[in-house]
Batch of 3 targets.
Target 1
Amino acid sequence: MSIITIKQIARDLGLSIATISKALRDGHDIGEETKKRVRAYALSVNYTPNPYASSLRKRKSKTIAVVLPEVTDSFFSKAINGIEVVAQMKGYHVLIYLSHESLLREQSILKDFQSGRVDGVLMSITTETECNSHIQELHARGIPIVFFDRVCNEIDTAKITTNDFESGYAVTSHLLESGCNKIGFLTISNCLPICMKRSAGYKKALIDHHMESKESDMILCSNNEEENYTLIKKILSQKKRPNGIIASVEKLSTTIYQVCKDIGLQIPNDIKVVCFSNQSTAAILNPSLTTVTQPAFEMGKTAAALLFKALEKTNLDLTKESVIIPSTLHIRESSVLAGISKTKNKLLQKEILIS
Amino acid sequence: MSIITIKQIARDLGLSIATISKALRDGHDIGEETKKRVRAYALSVNYTPNPYASSLRKRKSKTIAVVLPEVTDSFFSKAINGIEVVAQMKGYHVLIYLSHESLLREQSILKDFQSGRVDGVLMSITTETECNSHIQELHARGIPIVFFDRVCNEIDTAKITTNDFESGYAVTSHLLESGCNKIGFLTISNCLPICMKRSAGYKKALIDHHMESKESDMILCSNNEEENYTLIKKILSQKKRPNGIIASVEKLSTTIYQVCKDIGLQIPNDIKVVCFSNQSTAAILNPSLTTVTQPAFEMGKTAAALLFKALEKTNLDLTKESVIIPSTLHIRESSVLAGISKTKNKLLQKEILIS
């Protein structure tokens, strides 16, 4: 006789894997009728829990995984530091897996966890992660997952984020107040919740300032540096080019600066630039770069603390534990008013906690 | 009867763990007499290979580990990308472990590998790794190790490095030719081979240019950003301060720029700055930063390719496979002659492959 899996039961009963798993574990959000039906069927087909999954519940690997799209972005390297501080206190190893923005890799990584390699998972999804059955399946096995930064809304668990909508709103308002009247918004995804929230904040700020929000000002970049260079150069070389630009991803700032240098646009006189970025060099760029700085270290630390809480208290309801930590707007030279004195320019530079 | 381990045999015979392991595996660099003696003793005490080590030899985890001090440095994030390209082609997972410059953590990580979690290890050691018995022990178990960038000379295996001595020599010569006559050299370790080679190149260039090499110009920095800021500020505020500075680690460049800004030193007029760095923002800093750029991606790729070669050919002698890949000197504004025309200044900026 072949071994019956949760997946098989889900298929047979026409229910999701998550529902079956929760029903068998007496989950709080599954109806009594469904629970009865699932249990009766599991009994009838001689279902026994997966031995791997059982070994997982013993939490023996003393290891947690961090699944990230990349580490070149300083947000992620700082978040890792926050995670490791907590893990070290708990005597756990941290394994870092990079998905390199590939859904296929992310799926393969999560499959690897099913063998009991790790006790829990901290995760920031790829730009390609529109389908999430691989996360759903891991979640259904009872391995605690906490999302941070790039979350997957469809999975019922804790999400550690920053105020992305408010941040998008704040930088856009700042550029409008600095005199911009055509603002380009560079993004890397039309689906990632984090990108959608930032662009929604941008659009709302435009509306509130009685400005038109044009789809042509929303610019979708890729993972390829050269492609992005070509695209941004094309946009900034147009006759009706933007006089303000928001880069919603750190790595785009270098490309924007390069393009401006190459086509002779002066920042901030000809064009103002702001970027969502945690890079420490922002303050020493030419000109210094206005940034939305995410609380990267804090987000990593909070996500890890929650994961350990879930590992220690098996009845913890992670769905009720989401946290939003505010970002900071660092106004620097790249976005301040042009044609004013150096002293006044200095005065305009400041740090604002976004609320 | 207790189980006899390689460690026990080593102790009993007064030999190193590595020697015992190699003798039992018929290693090429162990004398016939020693081999005979070790084998006879192993037979007499009923030694059987460690079951973990046996399972390791089956190479079943389909996983390699990368042990790094940090990922904030862009050298490491780029090297990871090179490693992952190869690993993906081979269908392997890559686990990234961060030692955070702590020997204790590095030891704990390597201990974790003894359970057969990974098939092979790519490694860059911490600034604290003066004692290396933990690496020796893992090596003795037959788990292939390839070092890259920060190598451990005492372990007989492949080392993928760049021409650090020549790089130290080239940047120092460049600064001397740009008019500097007092050059400070910032380092993070007096023991790491990579730091020693760079500083040896620096000293040799001074001698060849008939300059005095003073110990007081060698400045040892730490992992603490604030401490480094205070130290660099103190040095650059002295009456007899350096008029040229070499940062042998990427992160120090931001601190140097900040200090110069804060105490009113103009780069390159008052002080010239060069840095060993792979950061993409070097070209857009104020002023753009002269760097020694390591072939990070290539080094990671080469190290991974060698590790897989060792995993596929068990009789491969890794000690004969070390590779040195040259770095590039990118001369930019931060180190060129002061007081010359913008056009001439531009002409002086160039890329040189260091030989």
Target 2
Amino acid sequence: MAYSAVRSEAGRAGAVLADSNDPLAPYRELFVITDPELVYFDGNSLGRLPKKTMNHLQNVIQQEWGTQLIRGWGTGWYDAPHRVGDKIGSLIGAAAGQVLACDSTSVNLYKAVMAALHARPGKHTVVSDAMNFPSDLYILQAAITHYGNTHTLRLVQSHDAELTVTPDAIAAAITTDTALVCLSHVTFKSGFIYDMQEITRRAHEVGALVVWDLSHSAGAVPMQLDGWNVDFAVGCCYKFLNGGPGAPAFIYVNKNIQAHVTSPIWGWFGQKSPFAFDIDYTPADGIDRFLAGTPPMLALSAVEASLDMLVPVGMHAIREKSIALTEYLIALYDSHLAELGFSLGSPRDAAKRGSHVSIRHPLGYQINQALIAEQKVIPDFREPDNLRLGLSPLTTSFVEVWDGVDRIRATVVAGTHHKYPAARKAVT
Amino acid sequence: MAYSAVRSEAGRAGAVLADSNDPLAPYRELFVITDPELVYFDGNSLGRLPKKTMNHLQNVIQQEWGTQLIRGWGTGWYDAPHRVGDKIGSLIGAAAGQVLACDSTSVNLYKAVMAALHARPGKHTVVSDAMNFPSDLYILQAAITHYGNTHTLRLVQSHDAELTVTPDAIAAAITTDTALVCLSHVTFKSGFIYDMQEITRRAHEVGALVVWDLSHSAGAVPMQLDGWNVDFAVGCCYKFLNGGPGAPAFIYVNKNIQAHVTSPIWGWFGQKSPFAFDIDYTPADGIDRFLAGTPPMLALSAVEASLDMLVPVGMHAIREKSIALTEYLIALYDSHLAELGFSLGSPRDAAKRGSHVSIRHPLGYQINQALIAEQKVIPDFREPDNLRLGLSPLTTSFVEVWDGVDRIRATVVAGTHHKYPAARKAVT
């Protein structure tokens, strides 16, 4: 394994050595890094800017929009949601023709959930978990409200401090009355990885459909959507896919069910022949029926520029580096932070952990502020006490991890966080 | 009136003179025009690229995304949907706090229609017209399907060749059972302007709500959404607002009804406190409840760059130029095209006409192809026989109108269109 030499006891020199041995280290050079001292632990919230994005967008804006004008739709724009979608598909184990890059994650989740409930009219339970991203739960609540409140939302709880859930715990909540199991593949706080294959299998056994949210796993954790026979998945392109703030999201609909499900939002790009301008809606064949409005070309171009760099790296190499980074971080946590009142909020087992690690502290919110304001460390704070540290395989270095932990320790030892307010800000 | 000198009988020299007298002519210089010979009659489908957009985006991408990274959300991004929305509001007669720039027109229309039907549970008719943009009808069909097919969609027909509809004709279709009247302010083929004020008044008389689609009027035709007490409106930013291909759209919800309606799509940006991560959805106060996912910052920035140029011009000046352009085009149609088998597909009365003019010809589809391929004229073709000529007040010149008509005439006189296929292409 390329990263076997990363040992926490070797100090900062060990991190320097690890970076010099890291086969993915050159990728960091392909991103804009204006402040080399900044420790950016938030690539899982907003990925860094690839250097090529600006040039690519400049070409799309000046050559395509500026010069081709409306003719751009005939020369590449029209296919962009599929083309970009297929590139995302190559990262998540989806063959061509099943992924669209479009809309926001919320809107795509709404489409998938509504389509799933519509396809299981006789079943009245929806299973998710209490650690799911709240926005996902809101969408489930919205869909249930639309269907006349005839469904019950059952939220499975975690049984341990690392916020993991066994497939058995999910399976215990699934019955023949379950229409849908909707979970985040990697949970947003603890970074726990669900056993997507096993849960999908168990859901299918009783006739339920599954919708997986891949926002925290796409581009960080390998998966086989086709191989595991997943029904629907959605995800975000501004985290590990480095597509830019508020980048278009994606939706996956398995080829096996495409003909049997429809989007709730019938827009012209989801119509069989958009430019025939028929007055009655007929859904397009295939994945296209999950399109709605006109594709956002500028934003899609930024996503595509990043994917063209990321896809050739391969998920195996990305995952290997990701595990090395989180293992290293946890080793440093043990030696530098555990004694300072922190507890680990993520699984110790690398196989159950995505590409972020949460460390918990009763004064976590104040520590988070001190790190940003005084230490050039940018974590994310997640209620009630999580410092969420995102490690982005293509851009996070081992030295960055070392420096980050070192500065977290220095902050807590010096007690500089005590001067920051304990109240939550509106936006973190 | 600034444009009184534009006389069709004065020939091309008259057009040159008109441009030299046009107070808005300098705005054309603020757009990228790589081929001065190109006659672009499609600014109502995809508006031209403002020169400042590239610089503005470059700043957002390199300075904000590249350098501020996640901190951008605290320094301008978070408010972008409202900030850009309020700028759009200033063009459509909406005071601050009622417009969001977000999602696509289709998604926003879906939100508005679903919210309206939900707010009128005892009423079971939806009124629109047969000339409406099909995508709008699809959304109505989708919403009705969701509500269990308990609503009837009533489509008013036009009674004349110019495809106009009187307020009386709409009013005749509205009853006390009408939940919603949903129309395009300016229709996409003929460019007919509905009497929004009168129809809204008549709908309210019987307790119906209104949703207006402003895609073909925002930035081209003045209106007073607040003054006319409109309930909902949606529209597109890639036409007369020059926001770029597939730009984010907008949604208007009148302050008077905001507390009584909710979006069907409950995403975290529509939640009262998105970063409290409550498990249960509580809609935000005010217009925010119609947000769903994370705002698309790159795309919103392109819209904002354009609006910052367009808003100060003022809708009065824009409308004056727009009328002068369409009047001039119709005069040239009368003198140059009417005798060649064309008929006018748009209202002759300027008060009833938006900023595009359709001219109809049995071989319109072939003529359209010949113009694009051989004449450097880009119209839009709309089934079954419309050459739709969009005149964008800030970018279309009078010489462009003259040259365009001159080349249409030359094409038809020479018969070069006969060699083009009569079958419809997939994308026009």
Target 3
Amino acid sequence: MEKVQKPLILVTNDDGYFAPGLHNLIDMVKPYGEVLVVAPEVGVSGMSHAITIKTPLRLTLLEKTNGVTFYKLNGTPVDCVKMAINQLVDRKPDILVSGINHGSNSSISVIYSGTMGGAIEGSLNKIPSIGFSLCSHRMDADFSLTKKYSEGIFLQVLKNGLPDYTCLNVNFPVIDESSFKGIKVCRQARGVWKEEYEKRVDPHGGEYYWLTGNFKNNENGSTDTDEWALDHNYASIVPVRTDFTDHENLKKLENLTVMYHESFYK
Amino acid sequence: MEKVQKPLILVTNDDGYFAPGLHNLIDMVKPYGEVLVVAPEVGVSGMSHAITIKTPLRLTLLEKTNGVTFYKLNGTPVDCVKMAINQLVDRKPDILVSGINHGSNSSISVIYSGTMGGAIEGSLNKIPSIGFSLCSHRMDADFSLTKKYSEGIFLQVLKNGLPDYTCLNVNFPVIDESSFKGIKVCRQARGVWKEEYEKRVDPHGGEYYWLTGNFKNNENGSTDTDEWALDHNYASIVPVRTDFTDHENLKKLENLTVMYHESFYK
């Protein structure tokens, strides 16, 4: 009788290989297959889809036991995914999970998120990929509800896959299970980070800045967004795609093809 | 008589404040308004939409003359744009230009691109924003054609604006003007970088990796993509949006909302 191969599960995150969110995620997926973890050596939140081109990448095996192979890499989540699928596996992973992030990646935060960078990179390689986040930055956050309901989402995707090039951005509210309403598939809320910079002076007299900011929701009460879901005690799932084309405005912008005319500059 | 304010033009790039592509862009826009440049201190290609959270940002004024104020910042293009609009201006920029990048940002490269990260950040703040790239990585590339035709695109956007939250990803082929066919507004080609890693050993015996790779176009000869345009001697303009939602598959994925059932795990 032919031996059935266990699913190959690729795991990454952006908070670093030591983050509790990552270890909760590993615990959650471990029963379902062979697990390969490649996680950043340090916290690299806000690294988006960045790749490391100008510095050498160093890969360190931390652990290889009991169905879990665990590496750290001095790179971004996207580097971790690329390294895993190009150097470390002999077959395509069946699923990729990224997180569980310490902090929200809803609305426009998806674009800054290293957690989602990792998940999106998986989807570019047609691996069904999910980024999980809990809306708390605390290192001692309680992941139990997130872990429990993420498992259901994970198993559905493992079983049914996802459309090619689409991944999931899953966010959980910080909430007791008794108040939890369930999961909503929704769209990314329109919003923006309103930034400020805190200016300081170092002990040597040099000025420097820290990025700070507040999220501003630009929706007018629409109930089909991730922000609405999270505010109303739901977990949100936004299917994320990698075609950045603004198809809606493609036709409208065709006038931009007019060629260079001297007269235009007068 | 009231004095009419000149347009405020914000300029950034990802190849660094010293890059010829940036200086070509500054020269091109300078006649049309007051120019504020905030550019990275070092080359930060591949930084995508990354932001700097964990290290202090240092801003250095390099030049303030003749309608051009020029800063360098030890951050990413997105940091440069945030710093500019939150710390350095007393009015909203009328337009943002990023580049001219040394190298293509067509197809899926848009997601890795720091040049486009800067442009997208502008569009998030409702500033009409354009990323310009020339498909050559050479530092001594000839920017004359790119500069000439970019000027026409720049002036149209300065005059007419862009839809809110939409920016432009403009790429120029490396070509003589006699062969140049013009400009095409098109969609992002479906494609992926097929990565490899070159493994080396340092003089101290430590192993490290360099990212390398080749672009793979996944289109079947469609003529409405940026890759097709560039391959056929056109410059490409892809309107880029920041809603990552996969609207096409939103409905299809609603089954993911099923709640946790013990039976599912049996």
